[in-house]
Amino acid sequence: MISKIESLAQWISISCMTGAVGMVCAGNMVLEPALQTSGEWISLLYWSVCAALVISTAAFAYLALASAQQRLRAVASQLPAPATVVRFSLTTEQQHAEV
């Protein structure tokens, strides 16, 4: 079962990525003339917010991954130990002695 933290991190990551993709599309299509004429600081601020969304996407995806690994380790520690397989091999002298 997915924990609340893992689920929340996944949803925030998806939301941030959707926002970043929307900002890239809007910045390259609709807002491109406005960003070019508005000045360097507005354009820098706009693309910085877009970059921050991408970075936060990666951070929340990492948190979801870490939570999933922690959950899997907890489940794996509850499993019984695997049966040991004993393999016997004959040495070359024993193989020749049998023939």
How does the major sheet shape up? none
The number of helical elements comes to 4
Strand content: under 5%
| Beta strands, count | 0
Q: How do the helices and strands follow one another from N- to C-terminus?
A: HHHH
* Oligomeric state of the chains in view: single chain
Supply Rg.
28 Å
What global shape is seen? elongated
- Uncertain segments are none
What percent of the residues sit in helical stretches (DSSP H or I)?
over 70%
Average pLDDT figure: 87
What structural class is derived from the secondary structure elements? mainly alpha
Distance between the termini: 58 Å
Outline:
With 99 residues, the protein is mainly alpha-helical. It is 79% helix and 0% strand.
General description of the model:
The chain is an all-alpha fold. 79% of the residues lie in helices and 0% in strands. The chain has four helices and no strands. It has helices at residues 4-28, 32-38, 40-78, 92-98. Helix 1 packs antiparallel against helix 3. It is elongated. The N and C termini lie far apart (58 Å). The model has no long low-confidence stretch (mean pLDDT 87).
